[in-house]
Amino acid sequence: MELTRETMRFEQLVTRGEEQVSIEGEATLPGSMRDAVTVLAVQAQAHLTGAQAGQGEAGVRGRVCFQVLYTQGDLTRIRALETSCEFDHAIPMEGVTPTMRLSARASVQETEGSASSGRMSLRALLGVEIEAFETTERDLVVSAADPDGEMGLQTLAQTVPYCSTQTLGEGKTLVREEFDLPAKLEVGDVLCATATATVGELSGGNGKVGVSGVVEVRVLHRPLEAGRPLAVTTHELPYELTIDAQLPEGAQPQATAEVTDVMADSTGAEKRRTLRAEAEVTVRLRLCRQSEASLLEDLYSLSGPELTPVSQEINVHTFEETLEARESARVQVTLPKDAPPIDTVLATFVQPTLTGVSPDGRRLDAEGVMGVTLLYLPVDSDIPTAVHVREPFSMTFPIEAAPGVTAQAYAIESAAGPTTSDRAEVRCVLGLRATQHGIRRIRGVTDVEQGATRKPEHGFVLVWPAEGESRWTTARRLRVAQDALAPAGKNALLAFRK
Known about the structure:
The chain contains one helix and 21 strands. By secondary structure, the protein is mostly beta strands. It has four domains: 134 residues, no CATH class; 126 residues, no CATH class; 132 residues, no CATH class; 42 residues, no CATH class. The protein starts with a strand and ends with a strand.
């Protein structure tokens, strides 16, 4: 018997980990240190800039950008503050070594802020998810042959799809655009802005890949007239950039886009205002190269020594996919008992945190807790107040996924209206970014052991295979070829051993 071996390189999912990371920031407040300060709302966005595997740990680094609404001195006037802070955090992960590849994601789950002595102290709670992959080499048997034909060798082959992921490159671009704001909005200065980016098309060749898409900027404006709700406008900025990358023939690269910085400002008179918006977009290009390997799965002989394959189990990474969708939801908010009654809702902000996702055919059911900040004017008062509550929610997204999928939710927009003096209905649009990895557990044959030679038995054999037993397993047990099995009625099989 001749065995043909090859050295195969597979990517394996070694471990998964998640952890909550608290990031703290600080900023100096303008004005007098003696002015009373009230923090109304804190928003934050997390941007990971890198992930590095260590010995038994995973290091992540990035930046958190805070936007704060507050009052200072004049309690009727809402002000805005923006600041950012860098972070570098190590997460313990058993089994991780420095040679492994990490896939990391972070989302903001909760924010809070306080002011004292002219300083603003901020905190963001991040949910960080990490997968660690290892590229391993295995010497596996791909085929077996019986040159003399004396053993009646029977072999079963398996086709194993697998993928290897590599980073192709990264690029940045700055996009600017101007927009005319309708006079009926009656808005004044810009308070703050947030943005998200999506990838539209990939094109190119000759060592370059062109990426185009859209940046969606959401701007919060101060109203011209005190006591009116803050206005939110949405604007689209197209972007294009080119990344130097060598693509194998027929390869299908994947790109992710992230807005790492956004600014907006408006100028003009009451009847005509012009909004200027700019955003810095970072695009990361990667390639999940799909391949197939034909390996020996099992074998036996019809005569001569009994053959036993020596196998080892391998978890093979077969694919990596990122899915995105958005859906709207409604959340009923009840004010705390000590909160003043609602007169006019000025603005609302939501922060979803997923506690679990469950695939259901072409849908993905998600459950979690929604942090809601309601900014409003109480009855008979022109001083804005804010309450922060956490409410459970459940949603269904149009995503087809398999068990084991992980997901993170983020807020796109929200609005609220009072239903009673102590209740409000929040209408929001959430985005969901789901990541799934295909993992296939295979048995790779590393060697074949030859046992004792049994005297062959001749004649007919009538068998009733066990439920779920394959034709190959039945033929192997009887040491006959699969084509020697004939149906004999009532699920029975008849075999003739010569």
